[in-house]
Design goal:
By secondary structure, this protein is an alpha+beta fold. It is built from 14 helices and seven strands. Helix 2 packs across helix 14, helix 10 packs across helix 12 and helix 13 crosses helix 14.
């Protein structure tokens, strides 16, 4: 009886704490050796079958790990799960004498003849697809890593947003489309806070502060033709692109694994995936708790913000102010991260500036130093 009451109480606490949204993270990262060369070894068997292990798999090539969290009801839970997955993986890498590369731009990459592609004995079409990607984009470009931020709202939250912000579309799928349109509109302002790849390791400078998000980085120009004006328009524009042409900064996804984009016409929009976030080298998870707070408030802002030629969010300061107002209005509990963002903004030093300084002072060794630091943190008994 006592256990039942305790269980009911915990369930009530979880329900009261549930703010009506879910976020999830996919974090990519390359395995390297101690010299910063990409690992030429197969995917660690300790992680099990990559297509069956939801938490730890691979992306492009055997060396690119991908860590995933379940959809979580708040940023703290999301960050904690990602931290657990990251430490679990780092401990395995530590035992193998390998490291996790903490930068979006790739480490030292060999010629194609020595590159270790993913092995899918049961899915040869996936092996063929990787080689197709190589022929189109090249190995170095496909080895760029990033953070994918997944976001969804419950029907109840959507209803609440419609009452509080009358401009929110009645159809939840169309509310997601509005969110995507605003995300694309504010893209350069968002990148002010999250850009962290100002150069590659050969010294080539990005147009702004993200080599990864530049024309030479991880994106396809044809993805600009994706039409977010409506769910129908989006699905139709997706159908005109090949699978490898959909590498855009924002995607609307359905719950259908084999038809995630166009499947929204059948089962609706399951979530929005934001793909323009660089790896944050200064956090063991590649993304910080304050990054998650900022992105969550931003997505609510983009879902509720009226669309007009003059948005009023034309500077990073105005955009952050809008996020902080949204946090207060919806009682999202994101104060800590947004306050940290505000302090960073007031200091005038962008994350990309910190990365640039690290490279100027230490070069490649700067990232090796961070990788070794995270390796020690995960391997220490205190981190268990």
């Amino acid at each position: 009886m006592a256990q039942t009451l305790m269980s009911d109480r915990r369930m009530m606490e979880r329900q009261m704490a549930d703010r009506g949204y879910r976020i999830g993270i996919e974090r990519e990262g390359l395995r390297t050796d101690a010299d910063g060369c990409i690992a030429l070894t197969p995917h660690p068997s300790e992680f099990g079958e990559r297509l069956e292990n939801f938490r730890i798999g691979t992306d492009f090539g055997e060396a690119m790990l991908e860590f995933r969290t379940k959809p979580q009801p708040d940023t703290e839970s999301c960050y904690q799960e990602l931290l657990e997955v990251t430490k679990e993986a780092l401990k395995v890498l530590h035992e193998r004498g390998e490291y996790l590369w903490p930068y979006s731009m790739p480490c030292r990459i060999p010629d194609e003849s020595a590159f270790c592609y993913n092995s899918y004995p049961e899915h040869p079409e996936e092996e063929d697809f990787e080689r197709l990607l190589t022929s189109i984009y090249g190995i170095r470009r496909m080895s760029i890593s990033g953070i994918h931020f997944n976001f969804s709202v419950s029907d109840e939250m959507h209803g609440y947003l419609r009452v509080r912000y009358p401009g929110v579309p009645e159809d939840k799928d169309e509310a997601y489309m509005r969110c995507c349109r605003n995300l694309l509109k504010y893209g350069q302002l968002i990148q002010y806070f999250l850009d962290a790849s100002p150069t590659d390791l050969d010294g080539h400078l990005a147009e702004a502060n993200s080599f990864r998000n530049s024309p030479d980085g991880y994106r396809c120009e044809k993805a600009k033709t994706l039409d977010f004006s409506s769910k129908q328009a989006y699905a139709e524009s997706v159908s005109r692109l090949k699978r490898y042409e959909r590498f855009g900064p924002v995607r609307a996804k359905s719950a259908q694994k084999k038809n995630m984009d166009a499947g929204i016409l059948i089962s609706g929009v399951n979530r929005i995936e934001v793909r323009f976030c660089d790896i944050n080298p200064f956090d063991i998870c590649g993304v910080s708790r304050q990054d998650l707070d900022f992105m969550t408030a931003l997505l609510f802002l983009c879902m509720t913000k009226e669309e007009a030629s003059e948005t009023g969010l034309d500077t990073p300061a105005h955009l952050l102010e809008g996020c902080m107002r949204m946090n207060r209005e919806l009682s999202l509990g994101l104060d800590e991260g947004l306050d940290a963002m505000r302090r960073d903004l007031e200091s005038g030093q962008k994350r990309s500036d910190k990365v640039r300084e690290l490279i100027q002072r230490h070069g490649l060794d700067g990232f090796l130093m961070l990788a070794a630091e995270y390796d020690r943190a995960a391997a220490s008994p205190e981190s268990a």
